[in-house]
Amino acid sequence: MLFKGLKDKFKHKSGVKFLxxxxxxxxxxxxxxxxxxxxxxxxxxxSFSEPELFFEFVDEYKLRPNAVKIIGxxxxxxxxxxxxxxxxxxxxxxxxxxxENSYALEFxxxxxxILVNYYTADNLLLQLMTVKTxxxxxxGFKEVDQNLNDLILEVPMNDFxxxxxxxxxxxxxxxxxx
Length: 178
Hints:
33% helix; Rossmann fold; 6 strands; 19% strand
């Protein structure tokens, strides 16, 4: 038991070190044309329990039905319980910032036009997912490290309607949508 606790502590420490190193590097540019064809969403399910609302982006931006990919984070989840959204948790942290979860690895294997970081908690796994996801533009909240996101919105996390409206407004300004 003591060994597992030490092992988890060292994994966390190596993950923090990896995150700091990645934030110091210049962001790699994703070679995708302007416009929105795919959206990735990283959602803190402990703070926001309605991830299905993100599928409204399909109608909002006239996307294909499978253009929105959502992955949720839970502090603890039971692998035997069914979740509507693919989930990862703190126990999926590996050495040197790796994430050992098949849902997370599948999410990270894709490129997105927009990555929506729908969390306000200062959480290592959520931040690692953000850093490792390849996206042309990353959108999030002001409470999170501002080096993680390109566009920072100052709206309450529980007000998804306002978030969606503000995001659309800024995407118009940036000529991503018409």
